[in-house]
Design a protein that fits this description.
Blueprint lengths: L12 E2 L3 E2 H51 L18 H5 L38 E4 L21 E5 L6 E2 L16 E5 L4 E4 L15
Parallel strand pairs: 3-5
Antiparallel strand pairs: 1-2, 3-4, 4-6, 6-7
Length: about 210
C-alpha cells in the first residue's frame, strides 16, 4: 500500500521565491513610494528652474553693465528707430552675452535664445518670443536714459519675467508679470544688478516701476 502524500496548504510561491501575496504587497509599497517621491522630484525641479531663471537674469544684468560701459552709461532703447527699427534691446545686448549678431532674428519681437529663455516648462516657446521684458517706464519715456540718473537703483526694476508677445514691458499695459515659479513668484532684475523673487502683485503706480522722480 502506497503511503499517503501530505499536501501542504501554504501559499504557492512564484519562482520558488515569493508568494503572490508578497509580490502584490511589494507592488503596493512601490506605488505608495512613487506617490510620495514624484511630487517631491517635481518640486525640486521647479525650484531648480527658478534658480536657473535667476541666474539668467543676473547674466542679463552683467551684459547690461558691459553695454553701459561702452555707451557712456546710457541704457539701450527698447527697439531701434529710423534705419534700425528691428534692433531691440536684446539684439543690442547680444554681443555682451556671447550671442552672434543674428542669433535672435531681425524682428521687433526677438526670437528667444540662451539666457533670454526661462527654463521653466510653463513658458510657451511656440507663442512667446521672450521670457523677460524690459521695463520701459524710464521717466515715463522708453528712450535714452542714463543709469546715473536713476535715484534708487536697488529699488527700481530693470528686467522682469513677462508673459507677453513682446520683448519689453510697460506697467501701464494690460499685460501682467508672469509668475512661473514656486510660491507664485516672478524674478525681477533691479537696476543695481541684484535679482529678487517677488510674489505680490505690483500695481502700475508702484514707484519701483518708475525710473525718474
Amino acid at each position: 500500500m502506497m503511503p499517503e502524500i501530505c499536501r501542504s496548504s501554504a501559499p504557492r510561491r512564484l519562482d520558488q521565491g515569493f508568494t503572490l501575496i508578497e509580490v502584490l504587497a511589494v507592488i503596493v509599497i512601490l506605488g505608495v513610494l512613487a506617490a510620495m517621491v514624484i511630487p517631491a522630484i517635481s518640486s525640486v525641479r521647479a525650484r531648480g528652474h527658478a534658480v536657473a531663471c535667476m541666474s539668467n537674469l543676473r547674466q542679463v544684468g552683467l551684459g547690461m553693465e558691459l553695454y553701459l560701459q561702452e555707451n557712456r552709461g546710457y541704457y539701450p532703447e527698447i527697439y531701434g528707430k529710423g534705419t534700425e527699427p528691428t534692433k531691440t534691446w536684446m539684439w543690442k545686448l547680444g554681443p555682451y552675452l556671447d550671442f552672434p549678431e543674428n542669433a535672435m532674428g531681425p524682428s521687433p519681437l526677438a526670437k528667444a535664445a540662451g539666457v533670454f529663455v526661462c527654463p521653466d516648462p510653463s513658458f510657451n516657446r511656440k507663442t512667446r518670443n521672450a521670457s523677460y521684458a524690459y521695463n520701459v517706464a524710464i521717466d515715463w519715456s522708453p528712450w535714452f536714459y542714463r543709469k546715473s540718473a536713476v535715484p534708487e537703483p536697488r529699488k527700481t526694476f530693470l528686467v522682469v519675467e513677462a508673459d507677453v508677445n513682446s520683448d519689453y514691458f510697460s506697467p501701464f499695459a494690460t499685460a501682467d508679470v508672469s509668475r512661473r515659479h514656486p510660491g507664485h513668484t516672478a524674478n525681477f532684475l533691479f537696476v543695481d544688478g541684484h535679482v529678487e523673487a517677488l510674489s505680490q502683485t505690483i500695481p502700475a503706480t508702484d514707484t519701483r516701476w518708475r525710473w525718474g522722480n
